[in-house]
Amino acid sequence: MIEIIGLKKSFGSKAVTKDLSLQVNTGEFLAIIGRSGEGKSVLLKQIVGLINSDGGDIIINGSHLSALHGKDRQKIFKECGYVFQFAALLDSISVFENIALYHLENGISAKEMRPLVVEKVKSVGLSLDVLDKFPDELSGGMKKRVGLARTLMMTPKILIYDEPTTGLDPITTRLIHELMKDTHIKFNTTTIVISHDIEIFKYASHVAMLHEGKIIFKGEASTIWESTDPYIYQFIRGLAEGPIQHGT
Ligand SMILES: Nc1ncnc2c1ncn2[C@@H]1O[C@H](COP(=O)(O)OP(=O)(O)OP(=O)(O)O)[C@@H](O)[C@H]1O
Ligand SMILES: [Mg+2]
Q1: Does 144 sit in the ligand 1 pocket, CB within 6 Å?
Q2: Atom 5, ligand 1: which residue's CA is nearest?
Q3: Which residue among 10, 18, 41 has the greatest number of ligand 1 atoms within 8 angstroms of its CB, and so is best to mutate?
Q4: Which residues, in sequence order, are CB contacts of 182 under 8 Å at separation 6+?
Q5: Which terminus, N or C, of the chain has the lesser number of Cβ atoms within 10 Å?
Q6: In this structure, are 169 and 67 located in the same domain?
Q7: 223 and 100 share a domain?
Q8: Residue 37 and residue 243: Cα distance in Å, rounded?
Q9: Which atom belonging to ligand 1 lies closest to the Cα atom of 85?
């Protein structure tokens, strides 16, 4: 379903994505791991079109992104729901407006949108009283759920999460993992999640590891523990011992 071939991206003289290839099959729940600053977010942003690649190609359901322009390109990206690393809610508008933003901006009335927003809010496990609140009145876990509800409004076929549990306590982390798994099954999406949390291995069907601009491992989640690659061996055992520090 998603095939990435020889993908390249540099910022100035700094090459971040270096000839990266990866295949994600329909229905997979893929966790991408890797150290802070390795380019995980940059990779996901290239998949959803927030960052243009310098070379290589991404093929989504048979469509080559490099050959698509304008509206055809936008159509593909609409199938990819992206849940931002820091929820990215607009503080000056209500939770309802945040969730329905795209539709409201496209001329659909709030009244018309309400039933769909209510359905999505319920499916991410929030109570309806959040709808009239503003983002700064919510906890971190609630914000992440609102971010997911907003993404689900677009009924994406591919659901991409950038660090959905970073900064959350272990109980909320588990709830978010379960929510991602339930959402994956309920909405029948192909799911990609970047995580620094070892628990994700219990929920993901597959794991990929990003290192030095390339995918150095991709396989079923359980098989990563059998890797004899010294870097992978050390990394996943390090993850098991505690969270990876950011900004290193
Ligand atoms: N828009 C940008 N302009 C310039 N450099 C960027 C840009 N976005 C990312 N980078 C650089 O690309 C590298 C990879 O960043 P990225 O955010 O993808 O890391 P990451 O693997 O997601 O890390 P983390 O786990 O901390 O989120 C970093 O060195 C970062 O500074
Ligand atoms: Mg990141």
Answers
A1: no
A2: 11
A3: 41
A4: none
A5: C
A6: yes
A7: no
A8: 15
A9: 27
